[in-house]
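Example 261.
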Amino acid sequence: MRPQRFRGRSVVVVGGASGIGAAAAHLFAHEGAAVAVIDRLSGTDEPPTFRADITDPAQVESQFALAVDHLRGLDALFVSAGVESTHSSADTDFAEWSHVMAVNATGAFLCSQAAMRHFKESRTGGSIVLTSSTRAEITVPDSVAYTASKGAVSALGRSLAIEGAAHGIRVNCVLPGAILTPMLLREASASDTPAAEQMSRWAAMHPLGRLGTADDVAEAVLFLSSEAAGFITGVSLPVDGGMMAVEPGGPPIAYGGSASG
Ligand SMILES: NC(=O)c1ccc[n+]([C@@H]2O[C@H](COP(=O)([O-])OP(=O)(O)OC[C@H]3O[C@@H](n4cnc5c(N)ncnc54)[C@H](O)[C@@H]3O)[C@@H](O)[C@H]2O)c1
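Predicted structure in complex with nicotinamide-adenine-dinucleotide:
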């Protein structure tokens, strides 16, 4: 039996139809929260999904309002929705750049803006957790649009944290490493390296010697959204098996463990 940290609380998970968002929606519900999902894909009946493309301000506004009405309030927002991009600057055309920025950065902004308005008007305070990435801090050559978009998400989180503090609104980011979700599987199939080998390489980048799971990230999101994190705002929390702690240019480390979670 899990602790019931969110009993009586209402939580909206954006991007909750898949991967990390779906895991978080599930765990929030298991800990007693009333949960609503906003996603461009239809999810399951429970938690209910409000369909919106988060790049469209009108869709975000209307579906956010419906989700909050359905929940009869809002205590926490988790924005997980995002899209990947695996190209260098030369290979990133304008349409790809615009789409990645629109979903990852603008979408996070529009959803946060709706929650900030709600928290301020209702004078309840609240929590927002955004999904950035280790790529916001350390990155690879073929990830230009994605890296830029996640840098924007981390900066957005800090900015909203400062704005929200006087209203009892906490805003934090999680920075996942390589997490075994449909997004990572798509990235593996797009790579020139055979997918299984690529997965092993990604697993080996983490000192803990494995890929992360969607639950690994969801657990961090629940902590940041909970009262136990009541004095934490404006942080970017890596959930990366130690990857960001590795000294650049240091000796190669033979990581142990397995890639299977
Ligand atoms: N998987 C990883 O290795 C990894 C690493 C670092 C960061 N992240 C970040 O974690 C978040 C979740 O990724 P995931 O791995 O669970 O991916 P995923 O593809 O499994 O899930 C992403 C979800 O976002 C939704 N979404 C995408 N575009 C949308 C739009 N325009 N409007 C509404 N919903 C939209 C999708 O429908 C999907 O349900 C993303 O922001 C991603 O960038 C993932």
